[in-house]
Specification:
- The protein has about 450 residues and is α/β, with parallel strands linked by helices.
- The protein is built from 15 helices and 15 strands.
- α5 crosses α12 and α13 runs parallel beside α15.
- It is globular, with a radius of gyration of 22 Å.
- The structure holds 4'-deoxy-4'-aminopyridoxal-5'-phosphate.
Length: about 450
């Protein structure tokens, strides 16, 4: 291997095209190259030997924490025994079959089978095709539109980037594409009519959805997709009554529901799935990140029993399901998934999400809710956010150009803690690994308080 110690920054700027990075400033050396070399528990180490508490678990995915020997060994053993075989035309490996069973055993009992992919984006791409196949199989080819929500995040492909409801992922790419539509975000803090209660606002969201369905024609609307708890769009738990009211509208017009659990799946909310946590009854569940705790790339679409029956019925007429990836159910990734899910059970990490997560959110609230520029501290399980405002009483937001969120995240980084400035609004997000201790939770809160004071006084 090349010795990179002196050259890594130059090689990086000249050769590495980074995702979600400003190309100009990075290539010109105006933004830092950060090289991460190791990780243990909730901490990562960089190439300068600095250690940081990773309070966002990578991209809210290293749920089991860093340095888990059990998962690393399972990956090594699988690579040694059988690095690859495909899963087309009925092939499988012990790892992929065992993992499929483990996933369905953990999913809500209305779910039936899992289709494997590699990323959250490709899993949602699969979902779109499953929905279209299903309606073609059922003899209603005009029922194809999919309603997503502003501020939803469902991936960055052409169709999944269209599902995403954030401008950064649309602008400059000619997205969103038909037949994707967007309805209101369930964002109570940012509601227009501040006199509304949470229940009233949830009803308002359900009414807006119903109005959109009626305007489009219910016979043309196939599905609705949402994260149980809005993630990248701001880390926003749903307002009271939201999911039952949405579900009632969807049931009324025979519209499928996709719960995108890429972030919430496998414990982040304190329940195994966000669907259980909020009483959602999905037809499809998207999973990725926490499935392997990001030790290997793996995603899945979990299909309900009801939808499975409809798909199977259609197969005789439409032929085999002509959709597959070379790496679907890759055995090395599946072995990582099996070891990860076992570890989450063996260490009872979801109980820790509930206990330490509640401690962390309470401490964050106590430390920051009273600050003149903190509009809201919110969260669930082991995920939380602090939203900053210019004026608390008038709920006036800062000019985006001031970049208050990124400044606070940078000040926090300087203090050895990694949080995430969410892409729209001044929102600092946290989603630590599930193995967080109360001491480390207190450390994150103390450093956050200092970072906020540094930027906002
Ligand atoms: N859905 C949700 C809810 C996500 O948070 C993400 C990623 N942040 C995705 C889908 C896309 O996953 P990936 O980046 O693995 O394609």
């Amino acid at each position: 291997m090349l010795d990179l110690s002196n050259e890594r920054t130059a090689y990086d700027r000249d050769h590495f095209f980074h995702p979600s990075t400003h190309m100009g400033t990075h290539a010109r050396g105006e933004s830092p190259t950060r090289v991460i070399t190791g990780g243990e528990g909730v901490r990562i180490t960089d190439s300068d030997g600095n250690t940081h508490v990773d309070a966002f678990a990578g991209l809210y995915c290293v749920n089991a924490g860093y340095g888990r020997t059990e998962i690393a060994e399972a990956i090594g053993k699988q690579a040694h025994d059988l690095a690859y075989y495909h899963s087309y035309v009925g092939h499988g490996t012990d790892a992929s079959i065992e993992l499929a069973k483990m996933i369905v055993d953990r999913a809500p009992d209305t779910m039936s089978r899992v289709y494997f992919g590699l990323s959250g984006s490709d899993a949602n791409e699969t979902n779109i095709k499953l929905i279209w196949f299903y309606n073609n199989a059922r003899g209603r080819p005009e029922k194809k539109k999919i309603i997503s929500r502003w501020r939803g995040y469902h991936g960055s492909g052409v169709m999944t980037g269209s599902l995403t409801g954030l401008h950064l992922f649309h602008n400059a790419f000619d997205l969103p594409r038909a037949p994707i539509l967007h309805t209101l975000a369930p964002y109570y803090f940012r509601r227009e009519d501040r006199s509304m209660s949470e229940e009233q606002f949830s009803q308002h969201c359900a009414d807006a959805l119903e109005a959109m369905i009626l305007e489009e024609g219910p016979e043309t609307v196939a599905a609705f997709i949402g994260e149980p708890l809005l993630g990248t769009g701001g880390i926003v738990p749903p307002p009271a009554g939201y999911w039952p009211k949405i579900q009632a509208v969807l049931d009324k017009y025979d519209i499928l529901l996709v719960a995108d659990e890429v972030v919430t799946g496998f414990g982040r909310t304190g329940s195994m799935f966000g669907s259980e946590h909020y009483g959602i009854k999905p037809d499809l569940i998207t999973i990725a990140k926490g499935l392997t705790s990001a030790y290997a790339p793996l995603s899945g679409s979990i299909v309900s029993k009801r939808m499975w029956e409809g798909l199977v019925e259609g197969v005789d007429e439409l032929g085999a399901f002509g959709h597959g990836w070379t790496y679907s159910a890759h055995p090395i990734c599946a072995a990582a998934g099996v070891a990860n899910l076992k570890l989450i059970d063996d260490l009872d990490l979801i109980a820790n999400v509930r206990e330490v997560g509640a401690h962390f959110r309470r401490a964050l609230h106590d430390a920051l809710a009273g600050h003149a520029h903190v509009g809201e501290v919110r969260g669930e399980g082991m995920i939380a956010a602090v939203e900053f405002v210019e004026d608390k009483d008038d709920r006036k937001f800062f000019e985006p150009g001031k970049k208050i969120g990124p400044q606070i995240a940078a000040a926090l980084f300087e203090r050895g803690v990694i949080g995430r400035a969410m892409p729209e609004g001044d929102i600092l997000g946290f989603a630590p690994p599930f193995c967080l201790t109360k001491d480390d939770a207190d450390l994150i809160v103390a450093r956050t308080r200092e970072a906020v004071a540094h930027v906002l006084g």
